[in-house]
Amino acid sequence: MTPYTIPYEPLKIERLTNGFRITDTDGSIYTFDKAEHCTEPVFFGQTSAWYLTSIVTGGKKQTITFNYGKTATQMIRYRTEVRNYGTVLTYDAYDTTFGEYPITQQFYQLQGDPKYQTYTYSTPVVTSIMWNDVVIEFSYTDDRIDGQKTRLSSISVKDNGNEIRYISLGNSSNFGNNVNTYRMRLDNVSIKGTANGSESELYGFTYNSMIPAEHYNLNLSLVDNPHCSEDYWGYYNNGDTYTMIPEGAIACGTGWADRSPVEQYMKMCSLESITYPTGGTTTFTMEANRVTSGMIGGLRVKSIINKDSNGMVLETKSYEYAGYATMDVNLDLFSYTDEFWYFIRQHNGAYQSHCTTHQIGMASPILPLTGRSGSPVFYHTVTEYMGTSSSNTGKLVYHYVEDDESSRPGSES
Q: Taking Cα atoms as reference points, which of 118, 140, 117 lies closest to residue 128?
């Protein structure tokens, strides 16, 4: 069987014993034969991904090798939910007079409950990249306390065995205030000529200080766990409902989830500023994605302010956007109808059958709320002002065209 890409690209894809080899149009060869495995739950030992191990450039002029000398354990936890609503049939004891099992109808019964699932992966971690006489080495520390384990702590670049760059990542701190809310945070990046060098370039980062939502805890009951607090696209919205199925998806009951986006909470842990080695800063103001129909999940840059080390404003840029959602939110994406058939064998050996129609409600949409590019919105026009829209020294207008690879799901004719 020959694999092909969707949409089609003129690539040669070959299946290897332990992975794949891809040859592109300029003759470069990419080999993927380091496997990642899902170790929990039911997919034990199954390959979940293949990692790049070598690149041979066109004409075999150069070979780049990726080495994986370490394996990290990565755990992904998520909550999902499917419920069905409709008439449920039950059967009474056998009636000897009529020679059948009488049916009892329980009208409009809601069935199902939220569920938690944990997937654990054995993930290869790149430890070096090599080509010619250059080696890039990656070092890790296994001390994370945010539900994961391994973090990248430093990168060393060597040429002919001599270290020419040493990069240290200050990511030992966390967002949050306890083990239930911790998320790893990158506070700074230090760049030196060597690991023991005295001169360094230090880049610092600050973020929105909102405390993250709690992790799902598999040791707690569903009721005691954090409730649904995410919008349609998965961004935090500070909601608090036991169910994840959006309001209006199922025509019964109350207390369904409000999955609307909320700009204030969407900014949780987002980048706000960068401080450079010179002491200058760049400050970012973020806002929610918006189109004519309303707010969309995810953030975009509203303005950027650059200052020198004395706090003097050197430059202000602001942005306006025009575009559309790559997939409109429609409650029909979160529900569908299905037939439930009931069969029971009668005393004479024949089967009695009955059919009822149920409405199925889901926490996740049938089609993704993003285009193939993975973005929930496509902006065809972006205006950058040198200042603000009302007070500026000029502007640049960027126009973009959406290609087939970014088209909306389900839009193919």
A: 140
Does residue 304 come out as left (phi exceeding 0), alpha (psi in the -120 to 50 range) or beta?
Answer: beta
DSSP secondary structure letter of residue 408: P
DSSP 3: -
Residue 242: pLDDT over 60: yes
> Rounded distance, CA 163 to CA 216, Å?
43
Cα–Cα distance between 201 and 224 in angstroms, integer? 47
The answer, yes or no, to whether residue 100 has pLDDT greater than 50, is yes
How far apart are the C-alpha atoms of 164 and 156, rounded to whole Å?
Answer: 8
Give 54's contacts (C-beta < 8 A, 6+ positions apart).
29, 30, 31, 63, 64, 65, 66
- Compute the chain's Rg from CA coordinates: 28
pTM listed for this prediction: 0.85
Terminal-residue alpha carbon distance, the chain: 27
Residue type at 9 in one-letter notation = E
Torsion of CA 266, 269, 271, 273, to 10 degrees: 120
